[in-house]
């Protein structure tokens, strides 16, 4: 497109030639940009131009009225007018200035490169010395950390061995304590049972209130159980004290082991840290903080004392377990012999009451079965009544709707007659069903009353059996065996 009527600066609107394929050197490009005004994108349509362009563009050239000189041309075809000034619109440097500028840039670049080469050589030597010194220092620190890790692993193994032995001994003594507690708890039941048996036998009526052999054996059993409980309680107190000593020694071992595991973890982590490891940071002033509380001698002595204390506690605990085992066996045998004597006195008294109770239970089961069947019938009758009521609603609704027929349509036809008969039949059926329901409910009440009589009689028989069989023998059947008294289960 050809432009007309613009000043001389319009020549920069022509497309720029393509850039060369080979880029110039960095130093040459840097020198060429000196003393140039940077590009500010006030107008994105204007290409980058040197400062002289902006100065020339700032001028406002005046144009002569071309329309008067060329009256025959239209305004769009007017040839642009070029002003001819002596100094020219654009200022230029001389060729000597250009050569001197290039030579200055070359010399400055060579001097800078020479200084950079000397600095790089000095830095290479310094970095090499620093690297060797740091590697030597870091190697010594790593070696010391490795030795420390080995020391911690040794004491950790000693602590683990002693801790395992203490745990086994504590578990054994804990089992013995549980056996003592179970044995003592098991004696509480028979002791209460013997007292309750004496109190329950006081509720016997009539001739049954006799001072028989059962009562004598119960009194003897109470005395025996009381003596065994006192001895077991004393032994249990001793075991509890020893367990406290064992737990204290174990806690010291576990605390020491936990500290060593934490220290081992930290020192191992420090031992494995490298310059390429993740998680390394600056901690300014940390080298001036001294948080140590021990030296290697006191550190080793502390663990050795904990191990010696644990060994002493284990020896005492083993002796106590042996004495407790013999006590359990003696008390269990003594209590079991007296328990068998008392149980033999209760057997003959329970047989007659049990037979009567069995007969009452038979009649009661039959009555309950009949009650279940009559209740089922009542439910069936109730469902039938509900169904008939729905059918009655349908018939009455039909009759009600038919009363709305207009004029002569109110005919007493066969449908009307049958609907009236249906309502009467359903009402009669409902009356019969309600009578059956009342009769069934009355029969149910009679059966329930009969069941109540049988249940009351059964309660009377159960009360008789409850004193001897449930309260006395029932509680005595739960008396632990010799194995249970010894605490093995």
Automatic annotation (TrEMBL):
<dbReference type="InterPro" id="IPR000435">
    <property type="entry name" value="Tektins"/>
</dbReference>
<keyword id="KW-0963">Cytoplasm</keyword>
<dbReference type="GO" id="GO:0002081">
    <property type="term" value="C:outer acrosomal membrane"/>
</dbReference>
<keyword id="KW-0966">Cell projection</keyword>
<keyword id="KW-0969">Cilium</keyword>
<dbReference type="InterPro" id="IPR048256">
    <property type="entry name" value="Tektin-like"/>
</dbReference>
<dbReference type="GO" id="GO:0015630">
    <property type="term" value="C:microtubule cytoskeleton"/>
</dbReference>
<dbReference type="GO" id="GO:0036126">
    <property type="term" value="C:sperm flagellum"/>
</dbReference>
<keyword id="KW-0832">Ubl conjugation</keyword>
<keyword id="KW-0472">Membrane</keyword>
<dbReference type="GO" id="GO:0005634">
    <property type="term" value="C:nucleus"/>
</dbReference>
<comment type="similarity">
    <text>Belongs to the tektin family.</text>
</comment>
<keyword id="KW-0282">Flagellum</keyword>
<dbReference type="Pfam" id="PF03148">
    <property type="entry name" value="Tektin"/>
</dbReference>
<comment type="subunit">
    <text>Microtubule inner protein component of sperm flagellar doublet microtubules. Interacts with TEKT1, TEKT2, TEKT4 and TEKT5. Interacts with CCDC38.</text>
</comment>
<keyword id="KW-0206">Cytoskeleton</keyword>
<keyword id="KW-0968">Cytoplasmic vesicle</keyword>
<dbReference type="GO" id="GO:0060271">
    <property type="term" value="P:cilium assembly"/>
</dbReference>
<comment type="function">
    <text>Microtubule inner protein (MIP) part of the dynein-decorated doublet microtubules (DMTs) in cilia and flagellar axoneme. Forms filamentous polymers in the walls of ciliary and flagellar microtubules. Required for normal sperm mobility.</text>
</comment>
<protein>
    <recommendedName>
        <fullName>Tektin</fullName>
    </recommendedName>
</protein>
<dbReference type="GO" id="GO:0060294">
    <property type="term" value="P:cilium movement involved in cell motility"/>
</dbReference>
<dbReference type="GO" id="GO:0005930">
    <property type="term" value="C:axoneme"/>
</dbReference>
